[in-house]
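FAQ: What does a multi-protein file look like?

Like this. Sequence, then tokens, then the next protein.
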Amino acid sequence: MTVQSAIRRRGPLERTLAAHSWLVYLFFYAPIIVLVVFSFNEGRQVSIWQGTSLRWYRQMLEDTALLTALRNSLIVAVASTLVATALGTATALAMERFRFRGQRVYDGLLYLPIIVPEVTLAAMMLVFFIQAFDYIGRITGSVPNLSLTTIILSHICFNISFVTVVVRARLAGLDPGLEEAAADLYASRWKAFRRVTLPLILPGVVGGALLAFTMSLDDVVTTSFVSGPGSTTLPVYVFGMVKKGVTPVINAVSALMLLASMTLVFSSLLVQRGGSARARKRKKERKA
């Protein structure tokens, strides 16, 4: 049996697998396409097309409560991303460049926010804040409330793990000899990090920050557990709107959230891919 005849024999199987792949993509993305299309529907019926219009996008921009929720989401996402990126990058450096007692245990704990179900993590955060607030109340006589601060702290908790994973992947492909060469040229640890290490891992840091921002911006479960009065974020607000019934405004908000999330995810992938390509190019140049 020749190779060409064997390829022809596998033809029907390959076509079946290709058709299966397209059906899977259709199953996943058809609802998203329908949602985006009907966000431009003129009528109030979410399943009957009555003409093209931006009516629901205009109504969305006139909703004060929705805009407040959007502002809260941006505050939480920006604050948690900045802190988580700084701590996650420092953690990645410590795990990759140093050895210390209990490192394996810490490494395992680092992945818990990624592995543990989100509802479990949210319940743990809520219990922690309740006990912490009770302790603070006994000391000061005033018990704090759940607010944007508790949401930010919760998002920092799980975002650190995501940033650390991305930055560690970048550090794993970094040649330690570059840092050693900087030390041989009398560069201090801080100067070697700032002038050598940081520029090389910057694509990973930016990619981790974009991923953290996306995770924070889209989070519903943890935020709904640890949010208080006046601290509702946009995903939680949309979730509350769905309970009252699906309206074209929800389609418009969901379409914009989808666009923002996809933009951030693709930006993260492009930044990391660009950084990897530049690293491979520099390695080839050094070998040449």
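And here is the next protein:
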Amino acid sequence: MPRAWYTTDRAQSITRRLGAFLGVILVVWLLSFVPFLAPVYHGIRSAVYAVSSILGRATARLFANETSLSAQLAVCTDRLSIETVKAAAVDANAREAEEWRTLFGYIQRNQTQGIAARIIARSAPTSSTVIIDRGAADGIILHSAIIIGEGVLYGTVESVTETSSVVRLTEDAESAIAGAILGKRKTIGIVKGQEGALLSMDFIPQETLLTIGDVVVTSGLDGEIPEGLVIGTVSEVVATPSAPFISAVVALVHDPREWTSVLVIPPVIPPL
């Protein structure tokens, strides 16, 4: 006759182990009432709780369903996008603050009067114009010089509305500015815009000695743009012995795409 399940060797072994486990728990619980053993009891209990917590979190991650993981990934992606936008805004504000600091330094050193403005729109690369947020209502007039950095000529005001103005950059093909070589006041010429980031300085007297790296500035002879504003540096000299004039290729000292803050200086001789 077969033995009952509780009389089998396996059942008896399980029963003995369960009884031993419960006995250990009972003994540990009773030890908590012994004053000098209470700290040991609490230490064991804290360790058991810590291990249980770690095992619980690991189990949750192991058996987390795909939907839960996707939701967590979406939250992390959104947070990353928000932080990226914040970082970009901080970087843009820092660049603009540096531009204003440089312009303010130029104003202080040269005792220059002008109107601060911001670039709010840029045209296609072929026309080389920008729009600033100041217009006739702010005192802007035609042919005003636009300055960036520490006295670098950015362009001139081409047209004006009540609240905004169009600025033609120095590299525009229709731009023509009276120029000179810094330190050589007798070296005059006309600086014209070209396609790309290079300018040309034409009508320079044949006897003029030019060197690569000479700084080209405004001469002030056109009566509109103040004298001494930096235009660029000579990168190449083009001379023909039989011609009455020589030319020079002028490289810009700035990237027009990097600036957002400008100073508008009115013409030396206001237009009629």
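Q: Is there any per-entry metadata?
A: Some entries carry free-text notes. For the entry above: The CA atoms of residues 30 and 147 lie 86 Å apart.
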